[in-house]
């Protein structure tokens, strides 16, 4: 996705410098080309030069309506009082945290230029990774949240997307503005052309893990109603924001349309197995039914990375009879029988060590342009 040409005009030079340094020091420098102006004369000269401009963030007293008559992009006012916004003066609160201010700016841009170009087919730099198990209680969400955190700590921009019927997102991710993101499902079904702007408006940011996510309450009826094409459109919209290195999808253990869509759109499926025969049995039978479930006889094998969770160091002989290629082993952690907070999970040394090995290989092979097999 091309960089957006962003102009920021404000008489406060310290504010301009802080804004510019924030963008240049973050991954947003891949999203924006910025120009900073502290007086109206230099801004006027730049606009008259007919350089491409997508968005202008401007202090109201620097705005000259005559100067902008031919400009077709977006003008947003940097408001010092949020109540000053009206239908003739669209703007953003100047003193919001800069990540929230830019999110509001992007939301306005996408609303103005709303369009989806079709299913991306996993194109571009964004890697879509699903976490799945056909057996319940395998620790999928703990693994998904932990691997997302590891990826983010390596400097990757990560979006966590939970597709469980009864999700536990709020146990792992928190935001200062945790109002529900449930409206995203409405726009997905009723107004998909507005998805890009609504993603920016409704997503949340967990500052502890540096992960973006939707704060969806447990809503099984809403989730079951989601169609396969809806999921593909949502994944496409997240990709088209151009902001993410990884979209991490935490899937329900059941097989619904959203599960099939996620499998098809994923580059990789991190497939968790419990250290019990039931988990191996269900996985083996699901592999046998690929043709009936997915209209593809080898979809799972081509993408799946099989990982045994709660491994005690002993691999029973009957497990070997299922002929599953095991890629990694996550240790059994006795202390987690009575977990009271997410930090107990994130900072357990044995689990983190094995998780880092899996994450390192995932990122290294992605960078090399090949799938884990």
What are the salient characteristics of this protein?
373 residues, alpha/beta, 8-stranded mixed β-sheet, 5-stranded parallel β-sheet, 15 helices, 13 strands, 38% helix, 18% strand, elongated, disordered C terminus
Explained architecture:
The protein has 373 residues and is an alpha/beta fold. An 8-stranded mixed beta sheet has the order 8-9-7-10-6-11-12-13, with helices on both faces. The longest helix has 19 residues. The C terminus is likely disordered.
Write a brief structural summary.
By secondary structure, the protein is an alpha/beta fold. The chain has helices spanning 13-24, 40-48, 98-112, 140-153, 169-172, 183-190, 195-202, 220-224, 228-240, 257-265, 277-288, 290-294, 317-320, 342-346, 349-367, and strands at 4-9, 32-37, 55-58, 74-79, 91-93, 127-132, 158-163, 204-206, 211-213, 246-251, 268-273, 304-311, 326-331. Strands 8-9-7-10-6-11-12-13 form an 8-stranded mixed sheet, with helices on both faces.
Distance between the termini: 29 Å
Read across the widest sheet, the strand sequence of neighbours is 8-9-7-10-6-11-12-13
Order of helices and strands: EHEHEEEHEHEHHHEEHHEHEHHEHEHH
What would you report as the Rg, rounded to the nearest angstrom? 23 Å
Sheet-strand content, in percent, reads 15-25%
The proportion of residues forming helix, as a percent range, comes to 25-40%
Low-confidence residue ranges: 117-123, 366-373
Largest beta sheet, briefly?
8 strands, mixed
| Secondary structure tally, helices | 15
What do the pLDDT scores average to?
Answer: 82
Structural class: alpha/beta
Compute the number of strand runs. 13
The geometry reads as elongated
């Amino acid at each position: 996705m091309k960089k957006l040409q962003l102009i920021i005009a404000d008489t406060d030079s310290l504010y301009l410098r802080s804004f510019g340094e924030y963008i240049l020091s973050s991954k947003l420098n891949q999203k924006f080309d910025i120009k900073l102006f502290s007086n109206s004369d230099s801004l006027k000269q730049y606009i008259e030069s007919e350089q491409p401009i997508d968005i202008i963030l401007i202090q109201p007293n620097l705005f000259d309506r005559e100067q902008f008559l031919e400009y077709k992009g977006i003008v947003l006012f940097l408001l010092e009082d949020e109540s000053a916004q009206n239908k003739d003066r669209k703007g953003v609160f100047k003193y919001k945290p800069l990540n929230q201010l830019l999110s509001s700016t992007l939301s306005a841009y996408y609303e103005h230029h709303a369009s989806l170009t079709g299913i991306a087919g996993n194109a571009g730099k964004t890697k879509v990774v699903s976490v799945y198990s056909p057996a319940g209680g395998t620790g999928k969400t703990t693994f998904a949240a932990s691997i997302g955190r590891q990826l983010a700590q390596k400097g990757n921009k990560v979006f966590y997307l939970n597709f469980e019927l009864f999700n536990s997102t709020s146990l792992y991710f928190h935001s200062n503005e945790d109002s529900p993101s449930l409206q995203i499902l409405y726009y997905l079904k009723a107004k998909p052309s507005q998805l890009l702007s609504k993603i920016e408006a409704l997503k949340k940011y967990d500052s502890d893990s540096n992960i973006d996510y939707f704060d969806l309450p447990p809503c099984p009826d809403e989730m079951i109603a989601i169609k396969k094409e809806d999921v593909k459109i949502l994944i496409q919209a997240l990709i088209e924001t151009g902001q993410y290195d990884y979209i991490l999808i935490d899937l329900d253990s059941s097989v619904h349309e959203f599960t099939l869509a996620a499998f098809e759109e994923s580059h990789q499926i991190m497939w968790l197995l419990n250290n019990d025969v039931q988990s191996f049995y269900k996985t083996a039978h699901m592999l046998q039914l690929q043709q009936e479930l997915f209209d593809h006889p080898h979809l799972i094998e081509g993408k799946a990375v099989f990982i045994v969770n709660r491994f005690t160091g002993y691999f029973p002989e009957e497990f070997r009879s299922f002929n599953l290629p095991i890629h990694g082993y996550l240790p059994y952690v006795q202390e987690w029988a009575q977990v009271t907070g997410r930090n107990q999970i994130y900072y357990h040394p044995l689990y983190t060590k094995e998780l880092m090995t899996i994450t390192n290989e995932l990122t290294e092979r992605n960078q090399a342009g090949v799938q884990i097999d």
